[in-house]
Amino acid sequence: MKIIGTGSAVPRRKVTNEMLTEFLDTNDEWISTRTGIKSRRVLSTDEDVTQLAIKASEEALKDAHLDATDLDYIICHNVDNDYKTPALACVIQGAIKAKCPSVDMNGACAGFIFSLDCANGLMKAGRAKKILLVCAEHMTKLTDWTRRESCVLFGDGAGAVILTDEGPDCEISLSTVYSDALYCNASTKETPFSHQEKKYDKLSMKGKEVFKFAVQSSAHDIQQVMDQAKVTADDVKYFVLHQANLRIVDAIKTHMNQTEEKFPHNIERRGNTSSASVPLLLDEMNKNGMLKEGDIVIFSAFGAGFSSGACLMRW
Ligand code: UT7
Description:
globular, Peroxisomal Thiolase, Chain A, domain 1, 10 helices
């Protein structure tokens, strides 16, 4: 499996740390030093995550020089979106005028890797040759804007890739260990048979626990895919990590004993966009001409579940 096109889209509104201090007991110094974030993009009244998903998908198709009708499958990954049903992937399919099966997945922040695994499976089973995988996230509607320990972290955005089966084998490692350290309940309505109306909770996070899991799981998953591919860290051109906290990226860099340039980041401008963060960053790298044919790239992502995963691919 190989990536032959990338695309991304972010909301127009940029929210700086300074702007958050207008309604939150926080400051730029705390947010910058603890997370690396300086600003994030946030969806406001006149935009929605569906538009971002469609724009990122169209860009990726253009970059791959493909028509939407060339697609054999669309996977849209998201934690939440504008619809309960149909899947956002179906809405994207209609908008871009594709004619293939389309489905949503939810693997939280590690979702890009879980979706890559499913795409790889579809290709290996001979079910699809060209797949659009788009991760589109509206995290700022799930966050509790009174909880300063979590709301400062998140941003919105979408990142898309076009995958083809005409490529070398990739290596994937996944894990899930249930934990309540990061969750967000869904709402339920009263029915004639159930009188338990539940308003949906906003995101709740035990930051330190998640941080520890993130560093341990990412280090483990990366080692696993390198072992599977029989390569060492020195052979890898880039480690593209989930943009959750710059201190997590730094911890992995130190653990791997590799140089700064191998760990690209955009968290300072994008915040944590959940599953969209890796494909968003990848699209920036692609547009900046950082990727050359044959480069070994490792993606690693982690989050609620706890779920985590890494994927080693050749560009
Ligand atoms: O994508 C999903 C994965 N999510 C993550 O990977 C998040 C992982 N966790 C983290 O990134 C970090 O744990 C945080 C950035 C969330 C928090 O950093 P921390 O170094 O673990 O800080 P802390 O929770 O221990 O808080 C330290 C202090 C506390 O004050 P006291 O108790 O020491 O007086 C907090 O109340 O910082 C305070 N604090 C803040 N101060 C100013 C917490 N949030 C803020 C804030 N502004 N926004």
